[in-house]
Specification:
This protein is α+β, with helices and mostly antiparallel strands and about 200 residues long. About 15% of the residues lie in helices and about 35% in strands. It comes from Iodobacter fluviatilis.
Amino acid sequence: MSKYNDDYFFVKRDSSIENLPDLAPDKDTAFRLFRSSNAPEGDAPYVFRNGALDYQLGTGVKPSTILPNIFMGSIHFFIENKTFEKFMGLNLPGMVCHPCIYIDHNDEWHENYWHIYIQLEIDCWDREKSTFDLDSKEENIKGVSYDVTRFSLNTNILDKIPLADRRIFMIGGVQSGGILIHKSLKDFFSVRGIKFIPILDYWG
């Protein structure tokens, strides 16, 4: 077993907390993110609304008016201003940061958030110790990817990368996976609405 399997977690939005918003971009923001998420266009903030609002209202869930200082998206975070200052102090590479606005279900504007896109990608899963479908191989501009169902991390690859350069990243070479964070960041991201899945417990 890789010595790194205990050092990292997949970090995901905790969908079991039904009253938190699931931030979804408006049409203009979605277009801007699709076109150039790696380099935000212009100074205008991104704008997000609660993509789960229809579901919440339809199931009798009252949307929360108390917002966490960190929201989790699929491959991005939303961080409140004061927490963002601390986040920047972590000096994490491969982050693209841009101001954003969240408009809640009462049409109240929350203009004190930052959108964080995880640009850094590291292909570090072990092809011999992970479980994946060899026939699922796909090729694109990033290289080759597979449908991986169980992960084990590659010691040889991670040994060559200083910890400061691999504390948070997207796992590469996969068709679905997500964000990995090092255990040294777990306390920072431990807020309501975010869950951590150990490497060996994750099912793709």
